[in-house]
Membrane protein
Amino acid sequence: MTDGDDKLAKYRGDLQAAEKSAARDVNYQPFLAPMAIGLFGVLIAIVLPHSGEVHGYDVLFNSPVAQEFNTKLPERAYSWLALTGGILLPIGTIVSRSWLVAWVNWFFAGIAWWYSAFAIWIRQSRPVTDPGEGPAYGLIIAAVCLTILFATLSVLLFRKTPLQKALAQARREEAHRDEASRLKQQRLRTGLEEREQINDFVDDRRAVAAERRRVRRAQKENRQGVNPDGE
């Protein structure tokens, strides 16, 4: 295979470093559509009704309307988590393509998704005397979009890209061809060093046994007060 036919030619110098670099580069393009749906869905939910007359922005800033209808603290926590994990961090993930930002986004999106379900449960299980109402369609839309966003990020982060798979396969093939790499792989798998010659294994059991007998004989003669040289 010539360099022109080898699509991994520019990575051949250090396949391991190239594989690590590919793992840190988030290729969001195949997932752009569901990420955009999740992002814009959460963004629109901020201006939609959260519960009755309370809108998403009322919950976000704890406005007098939100206080009047007894909006709970977990609902405000959901609102800020949705803003962070559903709007700000997805934009950061798309712009930066950083695996670190994507992981932080995944973490916050997961917590925001859980809190959205909790907020719906709070609205549905409110006391009869509570002045508020049940969950409105804005809250439900946000919960659905956070689910889409969290699932998309999970697939994006936990699935290897075609480039990562190709680099991993090339590294395995190179390891079989390269003797030094093969020995390194063996040490990683077994923790044992390979010995090139059988003579490297020295059978010194007889010498050790003879030395022990000599030491015991000398100790016995010393106890009997006999000079080993016969003087």
